[in-house]
């Protein structure tokens, strides 16, 4: 991680790593706990903006139903602060396995907007897309 600008950067980085850990464990409740109730998601495979907690849950439930579930490996990130809002932009690699045990990797990018909620940073806006 580069461009650490304040002590809260470690907390935002921890939130990013918690997201990756919950995703890799296919831990739907743990993943959803990282999102603010008003969060929106532009998922990597979603053709529409997902703007309810129920729809975010459904999106990740479908993702985790793949056998085996995809895995994410986080890459570099930049964290910036604007008052009680933190922006985290970076890259990751999505690892997918198919029915014949073929393995694919997709380089992707993300932007996460967080808002401070007490001592925690919750995702309020999440965009992810495959890298060109």
Task: Give structural notes.
This protein is an alpha+beta fold and 132 residues long. It is 26% helix and 45% strand. It has a five-stranded mixed beta sheet, covered by helices on one side. Strand 2 (71-82) and strand 3 (85-97) form a beta hairpin. It is globular. The model is unreliable at 1-5 (pLDDT under 50).
Quick recap of the structure?
The protein is an alpha+beta fold. The protein is 26% helix and 45% strand. The protein has one domain (8-76, 91-130): Nuclear Transport Factor 2, Chain: A.
What would CATH call the architecture? Roll
Biggest sheet architecture: 5 strands, mixed
- The radius of gyration computed from the alpha-carbon positions, rounded to a whole number of angstroms, is 15 Å
Into how many domains do the coordinates divide? 1
| Quaternary status | single chain
In round numbers, the mean pLDDT is 92
Determine the strand fraction and express it as a percent band.
35-45%
**How many helices does DSSP assign?**
3
Give me the side-by-side strand order of the main sheet: 1-5-4-3-2
Which structural class is indicated by helix and strand composition?
A: alpha+beta
What's the overall geometry?
globular
Gap between N and C termini:
22 Å
């Amino acid at each position: 991680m580069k461009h650490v600008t304040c002590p809260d950067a470690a907390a935002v980085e921890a939130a990013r790593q918690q997201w990756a850990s919950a995703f890799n464990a296919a831990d739907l409740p743990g993943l959803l706990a990282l999102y603010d109730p008003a969060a929106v998601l532009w998922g990597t495979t979603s053709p529409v903006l997902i703007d309810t907690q129920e729809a975010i849950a459904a999106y990740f439930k479908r993702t985790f139903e793949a056998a085996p579930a995809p895995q994410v490996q986080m890459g570099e990130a930049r964290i910036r602060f604007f008052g009680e809002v933190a922006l985290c932009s970076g890259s990751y690699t999505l690892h997918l396995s198919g029915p014949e045990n073929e393995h694919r990797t997709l380089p992707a990018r993300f932007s996460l907007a967080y808002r401070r909620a007490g001592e925690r940073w919750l995702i309020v806006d999440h965009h992810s897309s495959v890298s060109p």
